[in-house]
Amino acid sequence: MAGRFFFAWRMLAAAQAQDNHNYTATRNARARASFEPLIDLTERQFRARYRLSKKVFKYLCRELRRLTNLRSSQRVSMQHKVLTALFFYATGSYQKPIGAANNISQKMCSVYIEQVTQALTHKNILQKYIRFPDTPAARQAVSQRFYRKYGIPGVVGCIDGSHFRIVVPRQEEEHLYYSHKHYHSLNVQMVCDDEYRILNVNSKFGGANHDSFIFENSDMKNYLKSLHQNGEIVWLLGDSGYPQRPWLMTPILDAEPNNIYNEKHMRARVVIENTFSRLKNRWRCLHKDRVLHYKPLKCSRIILACSVLHNIVINFGIDNIEEDMDLHLRNEDQENQVNYVERGEATSDLILGRILRDQLIRRLQ
Asked: pTM score, two decimals?
């Protein structure tokens, strides 16, 4: 008899728990339906909250629906999923406060951030929004803009690395991510054009790796080398942490003050530093004061996702809102810069790189 009563009580408790779950889900669904950011927020409020204009947000949702598998679920629209992820990218706040703000549980908030991040890093999206100029005409257009603005010919982009803080990885791989800045990070290599548009991202290396090592082991280096081998003489601009190469122009160390080449090089190269600043300030989950609390691979995808959003913002000509204009952020990554030192005998790449740089210097005089 007691066993039957206990079984009946268990059945009743389970039914009540399911009723409570259904009630909470229905209440939250109604709350989400009653708050419509596109209607209830002004344009300025929407941009401050999600870092995109309403027009760009609608465009983003159309692109994700067209090019990826991201879709609405039974209770949550695709738009609400994207808004949840955008709020995380924009604020760097973690999932409980985001869930409360959007009437979404912490668990589901995490799910939606993952789904949207996967969509933004889908190959169809990356191929469309993060592209190094892939034709001679496209590279010539970038080179001409750099020359008009900074007076250096042949430049198709600026390159640098920046550290993005992450939580301590598992013990067996921790040493790969502990940087010389004394925290765990990803050292992310990016190439940008003169308009702060990100042309290439390599976010797979841990903070223990130097900029020069990442470049020498990158597809970007191989691609530029192949252009030179085919007779197209173009180059990136990089700081003294990189090796001088025919396809990568670096500053002259210990040059005389007011050296024309170094001055023009520095003025042009600042665009990559400002690109990192704009990226980290608009998408605060990447900010220097934040730590990404995920495994390195997911952190890498989040950085890629924010890079896609960064380029979409540029394509639409959206100005940074006031709090995003903190461009002095670049100083952190420039501290304790380690100059690249060639080891062993001078290679043919180094010799040819110096010859081309000397020719460029004479052309600028």
From this structure: 0.86
